[in-house]
Design a protein that fits this description.
There is one protein chain. 62% of the residues lie in helices and 10% in strands. By secondary structure, the chain is an alpha/beta fold. The chain has three domains: 248 residues, MetI-like fold; 160 residues, D-Maltodextrin-Binding Protein, domain 2; 92 residues, D-Maltodextrin-Binding Protein, domain 2 (3-Layer(aba) Sandwich), CATH 3.40.190.120. Strand 1, helix 10 and strand 2 form a beta-alpha-beta unit.
Length: 519
């Protein structure tokens, strides 16, 4: 079967109205906000060297910050402001998704607009400005009737650059909860769905090119004083906005939002929960690719309604405990602590997805390595790879302390790529996940943890405060509790990583339900 006959293209097209509409909405709003802020600042700074240099310096510094980092920084900042607003004024606002994305993208749009506006205005011939003043024009009249029209082509070029930057960077807003074309890319990378990755990249590129060409048409019309071209470009922009926003806004809002983190298992489980809600006659959608802290805060604030987390992750990262407790005791204490934040620990799914150190089976047997204690004496000559957050998590600190681990090199990788890297010998050890089917696929082995440095990681369903007593939600999810064992979850994860038409999270979720629903 060729790439372009793959049935996943149909699935990708089905998501397009939602993803594209939200992408256009956040990009357009951010660009408009950037223009509203940048243009007056540029006009005010054009003849003030200190202010001009300061503005361009700050805007240039913003551009050096990686897009994902800038987007992520706004979420905790807005979350803190929302809490203060609620405490001081009695009302809050959502710090999830749209608002942090708009603010971060607006900052990204400012440099080209500031730079081109200042350059364009300062490039107007001084004799023309003097002539305008000579015929009795005020400074304001000269600005709006002479300087801005003459500088408009240069300003439009800056707006074109800003638009392309914003549209491209908006694909990175998925981890903070903003639906965008980046949903294709993040989901595709995690589930090895290269159709989604390709579709998302193509859609974002086509959108950026279309907007750039329409703005170029407006720019040409203004520069050549061709009203027909300028109007055609404006009509084209309006048509593009209407064609993308109207279908998205016409979609009925979802009653329930199911969250998911940034790895394949989470995509499958969120799809499974959404399908169970829909089977119960409830409206549900998924919000995937969220960071560990973002997703929990989003649940507490009610921006999502339900998601699956892991007991060890919550214990170490959300509640900042380093002591390792037995499974039952950990779940009891965790349930009580979650209740203090009005979050409901609804139940366990039945399997554990723990961090574990993993090696190729043949290499481990050849070196006599069966546990992390055995690994310690070899670690100095080995390299280790892990996901993007593992080396900054308490689990890594606990492992190093318990076993005095010191590796020759540390590398960070996309989770799914780590297993292939270990199998090929590119790295010696990886920090994998015990429920991942890729362990069997690549003939890897999980090393024992005799000193219990890694806590239990039971998969648990969490409900938002506003859903604590929601009987419809509880009834739809209840049949899943205790029904997914580690063997079944590994098989589901292996199917999700197969990279074929049956490997989409929705398809694997349907298979998983059929598997656990059998008597």
């Amino acid at each position: 079967m060729s790439l372009f006959s793959d049935p996943r293209w149909g699935e990708a097209l089905a998501h397009l109205p939602d993803y594209l509409g939200n992408h256009v909405l956040v990009s357009l709003t951010a660009l408009a906000l950037g223009l509203v802020v940048s243009l007056p600042l540029a006009i005010g700074a054009r003849n003030r060297p200190v202010m001009r240099n300061a503005l361009l310096g700050v805007a240039s510094i913003v551009q050096t910050v990686p897009g994902l980092a800038l987007l992520a920084l706004f979420y905790p900042l807005l979350l803190a402001l929302a809490s203060l607003s609620l405490a001081w004024f009695g009302f809050g606002f959502s710090a999830f998704g749209f608002l942090p994305a708009v603010l971060a993208l607006a900052l990204y749009s400012m440099l080209p607009v500031l730079r081109n506006t200042i350059t364009g205005l300062r490039g107007v011939d001084a004799s023309i400005i003097e002539a305008a003043q000579g015929v009795g024009m005020t400074r304001r009249q000269s600005l709006f009737m002479v300087e801005l029209p003459l500088a408009l082509p240069v300003i439009m070029a800056g707006i074109r650059t800003a638009a392309v930057w914003v549209i491209g960077t908006a694909t990175l807003s998925t981890p903070i909860g903003q639906t965008s074309l980046g949903n294709y890319i993040f989901a595709g990378l995690q589930t090895q769905n290269w159709v989604f990755v390709l579709f998302g990249c193509l859609a974002a590129a086509v959108l950026a090119l279309a907007v750039d060409q329409l703005l170029a048409l407006i720019e040409t019309g203004l520069r050549q004083r061709s009203r027909a071209r300028a109007v055609s470009g404006a009509i084209g922009m309006a048509a593009l906005i209407a064609a993308t926003l109207v279908p998205s806004m016409a979609r009925s809002p979802s009653s329930y939002i199911v969250g998911a983190k940034t790895f394949a298992e989470q995509y499958v489980l969120s799809a499974l929960i959404a399908q169970r809600l829909q089977a119960a006659g409830l409206s549900a959608t998924t919000r995937e690719g969220l960071g560990s802290n973002v997703i929990f805060d989003a649940l507490v604030s009610g921006d999502i309604d339900v998601y699956v987390d892991y007991s060890g992750t919550l214990w170490l990262n959300q509640f900042h405990h380093t002591d390792i407790k037995p499974r039952d005791e950990l779940l009891r204490e965790l349930k009580a602590r979650l209740a203090h934040q009005n979050v409901t620990l609804f139940g366990e799914l039945g399997f554990e997805n723990a961090y574990a150190l993993v090696m190729p089976r043949k290499r481990a047997e050849a070196l006599g390595i069966h546990s992390i204690a055995d690994l310690a004496s070899h670690a100095m000559t080995m390299s280790i790879a892990a996901d993007y957050e593992f080396f900054s998590r308490p689990e890594w600190a606990g492992l190093r302390k318990a076993y005095r681990l010191s590796f020759r090199a540390q590398r960070q990788m996309q989770p799914d790529f780590m297993y292939a890297a270990a199998a090929s010998g590119e790295v010696d050890v990886i920090a994998g996940y015990t429920s991942d089917g890729l362990i069997a696929k690549y003939d890897l082995v999980v090393l024992d943890d005799p000193r219990h440095a890694i806590p239990p990681y039971d998969a648990i369903v969490l409900l938002a405060p506003k859903r604590a007593s929601d009987s419809a939600l509880r009834g739809a999810i209840q049949p899943l509790l205790g029904k997914i064992n580690i063997k079944t979850m590994r098989e589901a994860n292996l199917r999700a990583a197969a990279g074929n038409g049956a490997s989409s999270p929705a398809s694997v979720a349907r298979w998983l339900w059929e598997k656990i629903a059998k008597p």
